[in-house]
Amino acid sequence: MKNVFQTLAFTVVLFLFGCATDLPVKTVRDTPSGENSETPAEPSSPAPVVTETPPPQPVTEPPATTEHREDIKLSNLEIQKFAYELGLDPKKPLSEDEKKQIVNRKRLRELERGLDSSKERLQYSKVLPWLKNDEEKITLLLIPSVEGRQVWINKNRIWSRAQDLKEFDDVVESQDIAIGMPAEYVKKSWGEPVNIEVSGNPIYRNERWQYNKQVSTPQGYKQEKRYVYLEGGRVVGWETE
User: Fold this and answer.
1) Every domain of the chain and the residues it spans
2) Fold of the CATH domain 165-241
3) Cα(125)–Cα(53) distance, rounded to whole angstroms?
4) Separation between Cα atoms, residue 110 and residue 154, nearest integer Å
5) What is the pLDDT of residues 92-149, one digit of tens each?
6) What share of the chain is helix, strand, coil (3-state, %, to 5)?
């Protein structure tokens, strides 16, 4: 009987060992706290890394400026040329403001030569008589497109200046001329010139008009030559011989 029980016990042990070998295998790792935790033998796939593309930054152009540029170099001949254009005497010491005017004049001439298309030149020629000074002209020409320049013209109400010319009515009545007077008003006051000399590109209307006038003197009448200087179709000065 004893042998029977021993045989039966040995059989049960073999059965239990066979069942144990069919259980899933697990691994044990240490946690930072010192406790054991079970994890699957096969590591899980890492989660995909999602990166966001930053939105494109707006591209802005540097603002146009008419500040005095130190990098513009002028020869003595250029200084004389632009000084005479501006009615300055280059033989006398020039103030800082006069030097700035000369530099702006050279810069303006460079920008005018850079107008490539007939559309650009025509637009500039039309608005030129109503621009107040070289700085306004430079500001306009620094805008890189015809459309952008038109926006600037409309925004600054440049065309309205052509309607505000009452200040010259009295000058015309007295048969005189004045600084800033449009060419058409000069003709109303003095008539058609006997000669017109053009400087540079004709569309920019930089001209010298000659008039011959009969003036009274103690000895009788004599003929007097008068020269009117216009830039962009506006009077900038005159002289008498």
Assistant:
1) 165-241
2) Beta-lactamase Inhibitory Protein; Chain:B, domain 1 (3.30.1450)
3) 48
4) 24
5) 899 999 999 999 999 999 999 999 999 999 999 999 989 989 999 999 999 999 999 9
6) 40, 20, 40
Kindly give the interhelix angle for 96-113 and 134-141, rounded to the nearest 10 degrees. 40
Pairing of strands 36-39, 27-30: antiparallel
The structure tokens listed for 165 are 């010319």
User: In which element (H, E) is residue 31 found?
Assistant: none
Quick: pLDDT tens for 167-216: 899 999 999 999 999 999 999 999 999 999 998 888 888 899 999 988 88
Copy the structure tokens of residue 85: 């254009």
Do 197 and 207 touch, CB atoms closer than 8 A?
yes
Q: Tokens 């298309």 map to which residue?
A: 117
Report how far residue 95's alpha carbon sits from residue 86's, in angstroms, rounded to the nearest whole number.
14
* Helices vs strands, H then E, count in the chain: 8, 6
Which tokens belong to 150?
Answer: 């038109």
